[in-house]
UniProtKB/TrEMBL annotation:
Annotated signal peptide: 1-21
Residues in Cupin-like domain copies: 72-235
Keywords: Signal
Alphabetized SUPFAM superfamilies for the sequence: Clavaminate synthase-like
Domain of life: Eukaryota
Protein name: Cupin-like domain-containing protein
Length: 237
């Protein structure tokens, strides 16, 4: 899965040359899974007990979709200022034909990228490694990349036209490139900034909670230095 996100991330980073050695075991790369899941009840088991996040209740409904030709003013007033989620399909060109693992390794493998290794005290631990090393490991190891896109790669990843004019172009903070493989799940986040997620290849499912600016105590949220909140709950259980 290739995902380009526009926001600002500030985190503690550890520099290493490689990750802990494990016996390689290919991940399940099947992306044809049912989502949202079919919720089944059982009289003796609480709904969603020991199941991944999203199994605890039925979804209220799909996220609103809008046209690819949406006017910037409508986008700003209805979704940015209105603090609402929206899906716009086809807003960026797919890069899966160009950005293959072999191409990225050969052309950009020398670059250092930020990688998250999950399942360590339920907190994403950020590490730095050569892009080539990540590409050799991420299909087997529990790793995903979330790095500020290097300047050398920006010429191949154009910005969505929706945010290249007016006030949007002046308030863009950082473009973040995500790469993962298999069934990768991030922590539950509440971002302090508006974010625009652009799926370039593969599939990414979003679970969005409308808390009306109030977060349940059960989420056990931790505030980061940049204002983001993340939950310590295990999204895989």
């Amino acid at each position: 899965m290739l995902l380009l996100t526009f926001l600002l991330i500030q985190s503690y980073i550890i520099w290493i040359s490689s990750v802990d050695g494990n016996i390689p075991f290919p991940k399940d790369m099947n992306i044809h899974v049912l989502f949202p899941p079919i919720i089944q009840t059982h009289e003796s088991i609480p709904l969603g007990h020991l199941r991944p996040l999203g199994w605890q209740r039925r979804a209220d409904g799909p996220i609103l979709e809008d046209s690819l030709n949406i006017e910037p003013a409508r986008f700003y007033h209805l979704f940015v200022q209105g603090n609402r989620s929206v899906v716009i399909r086809g807003i960026v060109s797919a890069l899966d034909v160009l950005w293959t693992d072999s191409y990225l390794s050969k052309r950009y493998g020398h670059l250092n990228v930020t990688v998250a290794k999950r399942k360590q005290r339920l907190i994403d631990t950020l590490i730095m490694m050569p892009f080539k090393t990540f590409l050799e490991q991420y299909r087997q190891d529990d790793l995903y990349m979330n790095t500020i896109i290097p300047d050398e790669m920006k010429t191949e990843a154009s910005l969505p036209s929706l945010i290249t004019c007016g006030i949007f172009s002046k308030r863009l903070l950082e473009p973040i490139l995500w790469i993962s493989a298999g069934d990768t799940a991030s922590l539950l986040y509440a971002h302090a900034q508006n974010t625009l997620h652009c799926v370039l290849d593969g599939r990414k499912d979003f679970i969005i909670y409308d808390t009306s600016n109030k977060y349940p105590h059960e989420l056990n949220l931790i505030k980061q230095s940049n204002g983001d909140l993340f939950s310590r709950i295990d999204v895989d259980l």
